[in-house]
Amino acid sequence: MSNEKFITFTDLYTMNYELTDIYAERQKWCDGVLFRRERPRKSNGIIFLNGCSGEYTNRRGETFFAPCKSLVCLPHKSEYTILNVSSKIDSPDAYLVEFNIVQNNKKITFSDSPFLIKGMNQYYVNELAENIVKEYETLIKSPPALKALIYKLLAYLGKEALTSYNKKHLLISPAIDFMEKNLICSLSVEQLANMCHVSSGCFRKLFREYAGKSPVQYIINRKIDMAKKMLENSNTSIERIAELLEFESSAYFCKLFKKKTKMTPTEYRNSN
Fold first, then answer.
1. 166, 152, 162: which is closest to 7 by C-alpha?
2. In whole angstroms, what separates CA 7 from the centre of its chain?
3. What's the CA gap between 169 and 202, in Å, rounded?
């Protein structure tokens, strides 16, 4: 499980996928009860804590508190325990929606442990979760109608996550814009961070979240992409390409190129 690639709700917003194994229910919680899931979940779950709160602990012993009116993701294959901290008597305490996400005949999930889903309108999510359960409970079920409601919930969560993601990375947008317009970027991470008025550590963290790699790795990858185009479309010598792309030496350029492409620059040119 540790080597499995996880997705985020931001990823899900732009993906094409199918929903399978759908189930939904309204739950009644009891104060002080400990529920222990000792077998991996067979599907993803999203649970809205309508009138209750709970303490979730994953198999590594990490714990978080989910207050009333919060939304929790219970990923496929996760194992955990829940301590029911409080519940109401006069209303359904939780709405649970279960489903699998399938893309290219493969099930995908969000994490190996439960987590709070933040940044959502609790009233809107409450209404959606309740409507999903009501649709599931109807005597004459409509699979398209049920799926449409769950897709609506997932699309909403994805859009909210994307908005939050974009706001978070506005801090480093000056450096991102500079790097996009100056493909051969010779500025240091410290200089790029100063451009955004943040520390180098903060810049590295935000940039890795944004691009999936460090600023240095990102710049190197862009340079290698440019080198590929030059090797494909010109007779420029390898030494000159290394110089134009501001690598410290042609030997270093060749080493990085082979590491990234599994071929030397000469082999790449001859194969294209």
1. 162
2. 4
3. 11
Q: How many residues belong to the chain? A: 272
Distance CA 176, CA 210 (A): 10
Residues 6+ apart with CB under 8 A from 216: 189
* Alpha-carbon gap, residue 92 to 59, rounded angstroms: 28
DSSP symbol at 17? -
Measure the CA–CA gap between 205 and 126, rounded to whole angstroms: 34
- CA-to-CA dists, residue 51 to 48, 54, 86, 130, 156, angstroms: 9, 11, 8, 13, 22
CA atoms within 13 A on the CB side of 52: 30
Phi and psi (nearest 5°) for 64?
Answer: -140, 155
**CA of residue 144 relative to chain centroid, distance:** 27
How far apart CA 184 and CA 168 sit, in angstroms, is 26
**Type of residue numbered 257:** F
Residuewise pLDDT in 10s, the chain (272 residues): 444 578 999 889 989 999 999 999 999 888 888 999 889 999 999 999 998 999 999 999 999 999 999 999 999 999 999 999 988 766 668 999 999 999 999 999 999 999 999 888 999 999 999 999 999 999 998 999 999 999 999 999 999 888 877 777 788 989 888 887 777 777 889 999 999 999 999 999 989 888 888 988 888 888 999 999 999 999 999 999 999 998 889 999 999 999 999 999 999 999 88
Longest dimension (CA), the chain: 78
Cβ atoms of 153 and 21 within 8 Å: the answer is no
Rg (CA), the chain: 25
